[in-house]
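A student in our group prepared the protein record below, which I am reviewing. This is what I was given:
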Amino acid sequence: MLRHIIEAIIVILLSTTPLLGFAQDNKTKQYEQRVEQYKRGIEAAKAEVKKTQREKKSALKEVNAIEQEMRLRSDYIGEIEEQRDAINNDIIRHSATIDSLNRALEHNRAIYAEAVRVAYRNYQQNNYANYLLASESIAEAARRTAQIEHISDSRKALADTIKSQTEVLDRECESLAKEVSKLDSVSRVVKQERRELEDSRVAAQRAYNQLTKREKAAIDEQRKQQKLHDQAVKELQKMLKGNKVGAGFTRNTRGLNLPVEGGTLTEQGFGGTITGKKGDAVRTIHEGIVQDIQYKKLTNRYTIFLGYNEYLVTYTNLSSVSVKKGDVVKKDQKIGVIGSGIESTDKPYVRIAIYDCETKKPLQVSSFFKKL
């Protein structure tokens, strides 16, 4: 009798397992904003295509508008497929969790059933009463009473554990069902977007076929330049990979001094030309690292590529340089000397451009400087 009681205690204590908690992965606001931005961009591009068709603008503009929509849609498909992969990973994780919980639950239920059977046999055979009556003293009786109560509490704790595990299992199954439904929805979106992308390709080809020879040459050159730009951006990203120097430089940085003291900045699209006097020093606008230096033999001029965290600033048309590749430079440190212009009457100048390698886009130069 006593052996059965002790065995039941040991079994219950060894089988009481902690609950496994699993937090659901929530999609970040940043991801949602990116997706919404793509959606707005695609809608704007589609509206532009319809506008060019409605106003009967040139086929060249229509092709440009359609290709812009295609680029945005391709990026959007990439975002959705990334989301689909994340959902797939969630489904795998939920499935593994459910399998683990099922095994733990079956194990605990089997032990609980055995504990209940032991308790029932002891009750039927008056084992508990005999066990207490066999006590040789009041202290021994109290100890045995405490053991019986401990067995009962342990059995109840195991029952509570089984209940909690069942609730967790139900939640995991519910989450898995939602993820599967979400995966179906996302897969349908990808399929639809791919259909629309193919329709856009057909429309772009049709519009391209209507172009004149001159217009085709213009758009082919535009495509060539876009490829070169994309390749250049990849090179910039590779160049700045893992760079942490100049971490204080962000797109919110304001009030910087011009690289040429007393110079004048003229913004030209994405980039600016800073004119000065012959022999003027060119200085870095922020703490950074020299990623590369290029020398053009044809013009006898240098270009310095300075990395500021994930941003790249290029200084072009330097007559000489005073730094080398790999140097860490301080803010306002001299990096070279301004170069002369092409014509003898031109003022010496340095060309500066700022690139955000995360967004793959150049930034407006004038917004960074207090001296214009």
Q: What stands out?
A: The longest helix spans residues 138-209. Residues 132 and 145 are 7 Å apart (CA to CA).
